[in-house]
Amino acid sequence: MSVLELGDVNGYYGNSHILFDLDLEVEQNEVVALLGRNGAGKTTTLRTITGTIPSREGTIEFRGDDISGDSVDAISNRGVKLVPEERRVFPTLTVTENMKVARDMTAGDARDIEEMYDVFPVLDELRENRGRNLSGGEQQMLSVARALIQDPDLLLLDEPTEGLAPVIVDDLYDVLSDVVDRDVTVLITEQNVDFALDLAERAYIIDKGSNAWEGTVDQLHEREDLLDEYLSVGSVEAD
Amino acid sequence: MVSQGLVLAQVSLDLFLAQLVTGLAIGAGLFLIAVGLSLIFGVLDVLNFAHGVLFMIGAYAALWSVGAVSVPVFGTLGIGFWPGLLIGAVAAGLMGVFIEAVFIRRVYDREPLDQLLLTFAFVLMLTDVVRTTFGSGSNVVSPPGLLSGDIQLLTGLSIPSYRAFVILMSFVVLGAIFLVLRTTNIGRLVRATSSDRDMAALMGVNVPRLYTLVFFVGAALAGLGGALIVPIQSVTPALGNQVIINAFVIAVIGGLGSFTGAFVGAYLVGVSVAVGSLIVAGAGQLIPFVAMIVVLLVKPEGLFGGAEA
Fold this sequence. Notes:
The structure holds 2 protein chains of 2 kinds.
Chain A (H helix, E strand, L loop, with lengths): L3 E10 L2 E11 L4 E5 L6 H9 L5 E7 L2 E2 L5 H6 L2 E4 L11 H10 L8 H7 L1 H4 L11 H14 L4 E5 L7 H16 L4 E5 L2 H7 L2 E6 L2 E7 H5 L2 H8 L8
Parallel strand pairs in A: 3-8, 3-9, 6-7, 7-8
Antiparallel strand pairs in A: 1-2, 1-4, 4-5, 9-10
Helix pairs in contact in A: 3-6
Chain B lengths: L1 H43 L6 H16 L14 H23 L8 H23 L15 E5 L2 E4 H23 L1 H11 L1 H6 L4 H23 L9 H16 L4 H21 L6 H13 L11
Antiparallel strand pairs in B: 1-2
Helix pairs in contact in B: 1-5, 1-8, 1-9, 1-10, 2-3, 2-4, 2-8, 2-9, 3-8, 5-6, 9-10, 9-11
């Protein structure tokens, strides 16, 4: 049984229709990349899965259960954890407090905070610093650590490298490839295609809110034309 | 001439100190209402106009407990002052939960004006319910026996024990709030949710349930404050309207959502009302409003605005 299965999903922001009959499937322990231009509907897809966008149609199944009508916290408590694009660390809480909130709110068994400090040595040195005083890269590390503490069944990563310096991106890659090795199921969206494809086994390309292509990462590497057609950075259509 | 001047100075100093002490007690009572208002605004982002009415419910619950008023069907309770503090806090807290869970919850995503209008409706309704139930007369009770005397501070300057107790309670409440918010799991959760409720929900927090809990605590603090001031202030159904204006003035001066601000603001208002009336009778009431205008012009976020939680 797949961990996540989206069937004919339509998503709306107010009156604007963003997702059109989207299909998507993530198997246990799989890392799947969700690719597409800016504005293609990647973030909306993740928000549809987390329940943040209330107007959604179609089937969204998590481990066989229909979660399309569940509230955000109910979906989270099933084990679906999002690392949002904006990182969203709690600004007035310290690094440790951010982690403790995650630990306390874990429905099942939470991972150990000290274990996270081993995985993220950068954060270890910043334990008592407030979220708002962290750099973008540090906030991203904390946001990922916070999700991992909750021992997710499905980890959703929304543009984790956005706005990060190349050297930080390398650090993040090391951490995430560790995570992937631990058999965590991941759905990742990225503008940085190389970053996503290095981590992922399969990929979906979406364009204007619809499925454009799906296949393995190996297949995608042989289709440079797809990358040009749907992901080229210089495109004027990007919004 | 000289000695006469000294005597006058002595008299006015005594008077000043006495008014100062009175002002502190008024400030303590005001803090207990402003703190719940600040808590609810800080976490839920809701301006609860009905907060003064919750304060009044606490006051009437205390009157009922003492035996000063009777409730239809239930009659008088008459079990003394101390249980009244608990009854007042719980009664106001439960009324707060009813208002939040059934009504305010539906307007969270609307404009602040909608929230104000909704909570103002409760001011009008509950004021009339209280007037119908208890009559519009004014009720005064004496402090509990334990606190009926005076405490001598200096020669010639004493403070009624009960007022000292109310002042002490304001410190206890402020300390307890900081302790809970800073050191407990639930406090951390409240701070996290108040800074980013969407992220909190994504981490599994049942935000509506947490909001209801916070509203209960804020409303219960108002009820406790109302019950506490019963031996100091005469209680009428208009009490809620009187205190909510002062509470908003305090919130503006101290900074909405800031507990330190509510504390400092409440004591500033209490003392300026009491001491100001020495200068010109009636002028005391004016000073807080002048202070509010100055703060709004110079530091619109309030003296301690945007600093914490």
